[in-house]
User: Which sequence fits this backbone?
């Protein structure tokens, strides 16, 4: 069983990478959710705030006054804090996002424990309680060993022909178990009011395609091969056979990788996800894998059209079904079945999974304690169910009201900035304003909750509960194919510390958990909040106009709404931003990839500038009170940098430089402010200092 969900689309452009936003994103539901103008009524949940870990916020004592804000702004604001706050053993990074994630996890734990203790629980409380109770029963999980997976492995053992392999891929996918490619519903790029089916590339165990070919990753490829062998051994394969099969799996995945697009390629050309074809034409492209039969096997009515994204990948899979010996297919499928299920099996499987994916690949020193791991699973499989309870105890109406005011102020500031752009023609500005007018903000939690009726869980088996939830989510998602988009759905649960922009719905979304310090603090002055959540709001709005978001119009359809001359001017400006970030060196010889991170860097730059304008307008002519000796403008930028204080393990940093669409946090702290004259004025910086970009080096886009 493979519970690692291949991503069908990476369209929700998140501001944070604390918990890979897409990795934990819930599969939305097609059926009508339950009405919820307020958080759903559950039993009397209680929250003991005295047991929650602290948040992180800007305090004057953190400043390193031996450093110059104009020379080393990151060190000035965050250097002392970073030196004093080592990465916990069960983390690979530590900063403002992670501290809020720990706090959210502590809230979730109290909720889950209460749900599990309620013997009469129904609905979402029963689902959460069952997952928590069975996940925490280490004795039963260890006693079961590999037993829960033996039925699936027995099916793989029978595969001895191309026809049986193709049939197995169809039948296993129908239960939500598909290690080879992503498949699910998403809005049609050309008709975003309606959902179609998308099939995307997948099948790789390593984070990105270059891990299979670039010499700088050869140590990780070798470690992955050793991991594959160990997992197969744990599954009962003799050591010598496991070693040979591991080599076969590496060869298998390397072939897939050569036919796949890298994360950078996908992030900088969203159109790669959209390749509309008829099932009949798709069948011709992949003669050994019938898409007509696949739709039938998934219980989905045969559509006139679906998106076969990255067709070369699917053509290669078809060739491999015909060319790769069945024994090698069995090794690949057996490994991924065990590997994907390992977090829910006995200790030996959990530890091997940790040793490679967390320790070797990312530098994590210690395995997370069981409770945190179970909560990660609940968030991944039943996140919105848990979210219904979370917002009942951890989110106030006052926070939502203040956020609505901030969103309104940021929106007005962005409109003015668009209207005043010197490089954009009047006709394109008109289109940009049309898109601005159609932004939909979502704050805190959904207006309608997802319906979880039909998901059967029990206190019998953790693995069985996770498997049931995984299949339920998959089938629920498939039920949306061919139906109108439900615009009330959310792509993140309320307890996730993140935010996102979805170009297909032109919406900006802020889950409840991010509305805490240092992002949003009801007790802080306006300047601090504008430098925190204000810049986040501006960031998400600006994603609508970044290099990929700008390819979608006000209704969410992919369309060309730019005059050619404006598109050329925009490209010239973004090239300068690429060059700025290419120059940032994280470690000797390890640079930020300015092209890969372009969308996020555009959003940071536009978001910070827009938030600053909104703050100044909100302040008006009122005197600057100077809090703790700092002006409004200074506190605005000080909190911006506080948001981006973050330590990484050396290995985690390498993974992020290769795979992450976001620049490392320390460069985000300085990248956007260095382009703003307001920053230089606030700290009396002089031309030529590192935090003052001027002339051809200064980048102003939105």
Assistant:
């Amino acid at each position: 069983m493979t519970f690692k969900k291949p991503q069908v689309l990476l369209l929700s452009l998140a501001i944070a990478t604390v918990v890979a936003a897409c990795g934990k994103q819930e599969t939305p539901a097609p059926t009508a959710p339950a009405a919820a103008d307020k958080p759903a009524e559950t039993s009397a949940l209680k929250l003991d705030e005295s047991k929650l870990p602290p948040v992180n916020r800007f305090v004057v004592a953190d400043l390193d006054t031996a450093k110059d804000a104009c020379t080393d702004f990151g060190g000035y604001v965050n250097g002392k804090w970073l030196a004093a706050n080592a990465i916990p053993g069960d983390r690979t990074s530590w900063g403002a996002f992670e501290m809020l994630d720990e706090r959210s996890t502590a809230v979730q734990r109290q909720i889950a424990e209460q749900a599990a203790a309620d013997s009469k629980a129904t609905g979402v409380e029963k689902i959460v309680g069952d997952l928590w109770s069975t996940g925490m029963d280490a004795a039963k999980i260890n006693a079961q060993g590999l037993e829960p997976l033996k039925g699936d492995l027995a099916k793989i053992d029978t595969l001895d022909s191309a026809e049986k392999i193709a049939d197995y891929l169809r039948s296993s996918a129908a239960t939500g178990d598909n290690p080879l490619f992503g498949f699910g519903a998403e809005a049609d790029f050309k008709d975003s009011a309606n959902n179609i089916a998308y099939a995307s590339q997948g099948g790789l165990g390593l984070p990105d395609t270059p891990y299979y070919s670039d010499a700088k990753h050869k140590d990780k490829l070798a470690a992955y091969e050793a991991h594959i062998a160990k997992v197969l051994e744990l599954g009962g394969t003799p050591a010598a056979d496991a070693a040979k099969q591991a080599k076969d799996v590496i060869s298998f995945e390397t072939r897939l990788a050569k036919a796949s697009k890298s994360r950078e390629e996908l992030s900088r050309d969203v159109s790669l996800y959209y390749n509309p074809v008829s099932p009949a034409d798709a069948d011709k492209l992949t003669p050994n894998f019938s898409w007509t039969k696949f739709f039938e096997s998934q219980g989905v009515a045969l559509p006139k059209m679906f998106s076969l994204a990255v067709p070369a990948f699917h053509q290669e899979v078809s060739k491999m079904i015909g060319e790769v010996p069945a024994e090698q297919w069995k090794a690949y499928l057996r490994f991924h079945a065990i590997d994907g299920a390992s977090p829910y099996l006995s200790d030996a499987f959990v530890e091997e999974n940790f040793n490679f994916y967390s320790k070797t690949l990312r530098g994590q020193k210690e395995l997370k304690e069981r409770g945190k791991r179970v909560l990660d699973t609940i968030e991944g499989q039943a996140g919105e169910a848990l979210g219904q309870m979370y917002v009942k105890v951890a989110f106030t109406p006052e926070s939502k009201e203040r956020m609505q005011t901030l969103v309104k102020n940021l929106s007005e500031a962005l409109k003015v900035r668009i209207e005043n752009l010197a490089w954009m023609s009047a006709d394109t500005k008109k289109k940009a304003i049309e898109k601005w007018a159609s932004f939909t903000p979502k704050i805190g939690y959904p207006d309608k909750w997802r319906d979880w009726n039909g998901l059967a869980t029990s206190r019998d088996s953790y693995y069985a509960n996770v498997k049931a939830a995984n299949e339920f989510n998959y089938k629920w998602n498939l039920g949306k194919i061919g139906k109108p988009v439900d615009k009330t759905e959310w792509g993140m649960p309320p307890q996730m510390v993140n935010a996102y922009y979805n170009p297909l719905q032109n919406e900006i979304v802020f889950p409840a958990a991010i509305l805490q310090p240092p992002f949003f603090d009801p007790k802080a002055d306006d300047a601090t909040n504008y430098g925190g959540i204000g810049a986040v709001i501006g960031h998400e709005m600006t994603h609508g106009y970044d290099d990929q978001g700008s390819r979608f119009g006000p209704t969410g359809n992919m369309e060309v709404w730019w005059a050619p001359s404006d598109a050329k001017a925009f490209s010239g400006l973004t090239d300068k931003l690429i060059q700025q970030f290419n120059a940032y060196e994280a470690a000797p010889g390890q640079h930020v990839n300015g092209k890969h991170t372009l969308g996020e860097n555009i959003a940071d730059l536009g978001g910070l500038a827009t938030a600053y304008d909104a703050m100044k307008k909100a302040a008006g002519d009122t005197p600057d009170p100077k809090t703790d000796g700092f002006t409004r403008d200074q506190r605005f930028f000080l909190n911006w940098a506080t948001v981006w204080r973050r330590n990484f393990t050396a290995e985690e940093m390498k993974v992020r430089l290769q795979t992450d669409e976001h620049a490392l946090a320390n460069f985000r702290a300085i990248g956007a402010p260095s382009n703003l004259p307001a920053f230089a004025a606030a700290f009396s910086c002089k031309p030529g200092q590192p935090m003052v970009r001027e002339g051809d080096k200064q980048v102003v886009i939105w």
